[in-house]
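Below is a filled-in request sheet from our internal design queue. Each sheet records the structural input a requester submitted and the sequence that came back. We keep these sheets so that new team members can see what a complete request looks like end to end.

REQUESTER: design group, bay 2
PRIORITY: normal
MODE: inverse folding
CHAIN LENGTH: 279
BACKBONE (tokenized):
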């Protein structure tokens, strides 16, 4: 009798599961990630070459079995730094088209530079404290060099903006970052437990960090005053890595697909990412 009741319960559960909508039981799938000049995707490819520094490109991908509330994000990364991120909700089956504009890329760059400047300024105060331990000092130095290196990666992109004031600010920013990086490298080259010598190598770091923050604020104002900014033409050796990721839903945090694009002036050979097929 007991076995019959268990069997009946199992049958009931299976029947109830079968009655659920397909979108409630299926796993969201992403396929055919590509980049194109416009949202129609007529010239789309897994590797796309944007000629002449346009104002935007479009990322397209197909999705299926997206349950209600599924969120899918598009990331664009250059040399390890996030340059664009947009997330939307999707349901069912369809094709998404997401515009990656120069305005959005430079807004993200501005935010990244502001975060880096704030962290460097906080770190500059911490490393000069009298009670700092060797371990804490070493940790702060490594965090600061990572932030400075990340900021240094995006400054050349800012220098591509066709505006004299922006380019002057980018040039000054590059100079201050070079000073900061040189001091951090000197401190990191000093023995781990020689705190006084490490702090001496960082002399003037607080002033450098304050100047950096001021320059970043100025640059953010300049970029904010402009619209229709073109994507930075970084040439055939710099590729922009597009990653599509499900961030909420039945397959949360699952990397779903990728593509790449270049922004170049004129014709020429591009250097493809490892594993990518040519355009």
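RETURNED SEQUENCE:
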């Amino acid at each position: 009798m007991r076995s019959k009741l268990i069997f009946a319960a199992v049958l009931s559960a299976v029947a109830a599961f079968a009655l659920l909508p397909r979108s409630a039981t299926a796993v969201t799938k992403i396929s055919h990630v590509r980049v194109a000049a416009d949202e129609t995707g007529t010239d789309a490819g897994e590797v796309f070459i944007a000629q002449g520094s346009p104002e935007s490109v479009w990322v397209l991908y197909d999705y299926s079995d997206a349950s209600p509330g599924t969120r899918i994000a598009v990331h664009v990364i250059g040399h390890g730094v996030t340059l664009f991120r947009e997330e939307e909700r999707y349901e069912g089956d369809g094709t998404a088209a997401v515009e990656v504009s120069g305005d959005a890329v430079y807004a993200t760059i501005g935010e990244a530079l502001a975060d880096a400047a704030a962290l460097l300024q906080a770190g500059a105060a911490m490393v000069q404290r009298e009670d700092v331990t060797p371990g804490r000092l070493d940790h702060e130095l490594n965090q600061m060099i990572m932030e400075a290196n990340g900021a240094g990666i995006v400054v050349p992109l800012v220098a591509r903006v066709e505006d004299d004031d922006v380019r002057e600010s980018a040039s000054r920013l590059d100079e201050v970052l070079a000073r900061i990086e040189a001091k951090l490298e000197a401190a990191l080259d000093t023995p781990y437990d020689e705190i006084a010598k490490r702090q001496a190598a960082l002399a003037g770091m607080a002033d450098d960090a304050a100047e950096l923050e001021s320059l970043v604020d100025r640059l953010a104002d300049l970029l904010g005053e402009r619209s229709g900014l073109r994507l930075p033409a970084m040439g055939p050796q710099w590729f922009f890595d597009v990653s599509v990721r499900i961030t909420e839903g039945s397959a949360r945090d699952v990397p779903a697909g990728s593509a790449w694009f270049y922004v170049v002036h004129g014709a020429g050979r591009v250097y493809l990412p490892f594993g990518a097929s040519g355009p």
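SHEET NOTES:
- Confidence is low (pLDDT under 50) at residues 4-20.
- The CA atoms of residues 55 and 230 lie 4 Å apart.
FILED BY: M.R.
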